């Protein structure tokens, strides 16, 4: 359940980020055009929830359907293309086949709905912490293509933009650049890089925390829509220090109580060992005060539960 919640939070954050036309255009230019400013934010049209982006037949209401993560129509020199971005927080070696299916379905839906047929291009925005290792084309995933048939086997490309290794210097959108820079510092565990005297939007900081699975809560940060990074990191370091002290006290108390209980009760069951490991410092202190009244494991569980 936790994994599903984290994935949903990360997907929602990606969609929110890329609903910003400036971020979407900048990421597309990075993915497709080696950061050349080919796609302009003002020339983007949202196609979110458009029937042509549905995965599944539109004439079967009982069939399970899903939409692509983020889809926009973009004008390039007056010619329109449909661009789909798929967000991935985990490595998927079969991603090329999903992209092929998504793109082909958009073509089919455009034909079936008698729309003008626009070209489709897709890429993956990958926010995982492990390196993406996957073939970049469909042909690379296929084995033993006979040389005679190779020219007749259609290919499909899979561009992947990795959050962890992007070159933020090549980005022009300030919001996307901030999210990338903060995320990379969090991935590296290098919080000193974040301690600089500049202001950033609080939402950008929280987006980076979500992408990198960094456990930071909004209440841990200064109030306001913008934060000074020096002040924010000072507050976080203080919280981390306080948590470390609390954890150290709890572990010390746990070890002491386990030794005392072994003397009184003999070998402790795995259930009790696990319960003690997960018990709060407050309950451990209560158990310490009542240690002489304990005669069996049930007495212990009554105190700590």
Automatic annotation (TrEMBL):
Name of a matching Pfam family: Transposase_31
Domain Transposase (putative) YhgA-like: 67-187
GO biological process, one term: DNA recombination
Signal peptide residue numbers: none
Bilayer-spanning residue ranges: none
A single GO molecular function term of this UniProt record: double-stranded DNA endonuclease activity
Protein name: Transposase (putative) YhgA-like domain-containing protein
Organism: Faecalibacillus faecis
Upper taxonomic lineage: Bacteria, Bacillati, Bacillota, Erysipelotrichia, Erysipelotrichales
């Amino acid at each position: 359940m936790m994994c599903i919640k984290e994935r949903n939070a990360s997907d929602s954050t990606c969609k929110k980020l890329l609903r910003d036309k400036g971020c979407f255009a900048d990421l597309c230019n990075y993915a497709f055009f080696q950061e050349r400013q080919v796609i302009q934010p003002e020339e983007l049209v949202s196609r979110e929830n458009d029937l042509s982006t549905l995965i599944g037949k539109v004439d079967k209401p009982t069939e399970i359907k899903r939409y692509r993560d983020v889809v926009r129509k973009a004008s390039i020199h007056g010619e329109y293309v449909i661009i789909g971005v798929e967000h991935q927080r985990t490595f998927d070696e079969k991603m090329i086949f999903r992209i092929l299916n998504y793109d082909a379905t958009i073509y089919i839906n455009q034909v079936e709905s008698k729309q003008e047929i626009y070209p489709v291009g897709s890429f993956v925005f990958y926010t995982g912490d492990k390196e993406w290792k996957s073939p970049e084309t469909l042909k690379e995933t296929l084995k033993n293509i006979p040389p005679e048939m190779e020219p007749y086997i259609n290919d499909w490309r899979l561009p992947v933009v990795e959050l962890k290794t992007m070159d933020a210097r090549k980005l022009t959108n300030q919001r996307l650049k901030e999210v990338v820079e903060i995320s990379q510092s969090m991935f590296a565990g290098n919080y000193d890089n974040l301690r600089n005297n500049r202001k950033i939007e609080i939402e950008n900081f929280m987006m980076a925390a979500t992408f990198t699975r960094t456990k930071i809560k909004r209440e841990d940060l200064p109030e306001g829509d913008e934060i000074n990074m020096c002040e924010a990191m000072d507050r976080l370091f203080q919280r981390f220090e306080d948590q470390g002290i609390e954890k150290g006290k709890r572990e010390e108390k746990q070890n002491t109580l386990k030794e005392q209980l072994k003397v009184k009760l003999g070998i402790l069951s795995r259930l009790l060992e696990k319960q003690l490991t997960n018990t709060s410092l407050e309950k451990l202190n209560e158990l310490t005060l009542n240690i002489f009244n304990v005669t069996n494991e049930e007495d212990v569980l009554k105190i700590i539960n």
